[in-house]
Design a protein that fits this description.
The chain is an alpha/beta fold. Helices cover 51% and strands 20% of the residues.
Length: 140
């Protein structure tokens, strides 16, 4: 009976410890962020937020990604609307990501997506995948 109790306790502690270690391994002690937005104009306050967090957190600041999706996704192909934000994002260490599902649904020419932007197949799924890795998430 004692052996059964100790074995069970050991097994439970092993599971809890392993889960805790996995979460730490994914984030590497850094604060990682992902923002899902539907409007290019919202990039201004998002990038300002990333800059403020980077200044506040210093070495604890990790990755910051912005996923753009929705019916206004075509705005990313307009240099007048997106180029300034691409430059600001680069300086702030923010990665801009385009939702491939939205590009397809709203028939946006993928060849016109700026080369400095990453495209993922499904922006919402990608957001959830980052959350599972420990990213703090916000949707606008």
């Amino acid at each position: 009976m004692k052996t059964y109790i100790f074995s069970s306790l050991f097994f439970i502690l092993t599971l809890v410890t392993t889960n805790h270690m996995t979460a730490q391994d994914v984030t590497n002690g850094k604060n990682n962020y992902v923002v899902l937005t539907k409007k290019v104009a919202q990039l201004q306050p998002i990038i300002l937020t990333a800059e403020a967090l980077k200044a506040e957190e210093c070495d604890a600041f990790g990755d910051f990604q912005v996923i753009i999706c929705g019916k206004e996704i075509g705005d990313i192909t307009d240099p007048e609307k997106i180029n300034t934000f691409i430059e600001k994002a680069e300086k702030a260490g923010v990665q801009l990501v385009a939702c491939g599902f939205s590009l397809n649904k709203f028939k946006v020419d993928k060849t016109k997506v700026p080369s400095k932007m990453t495209t993922v197949e499904n922006g919402i799924l990608y957001n959830f995948q980052l959350q599972k890795k420990g990213y703090k998430s916000l949707s606008l």
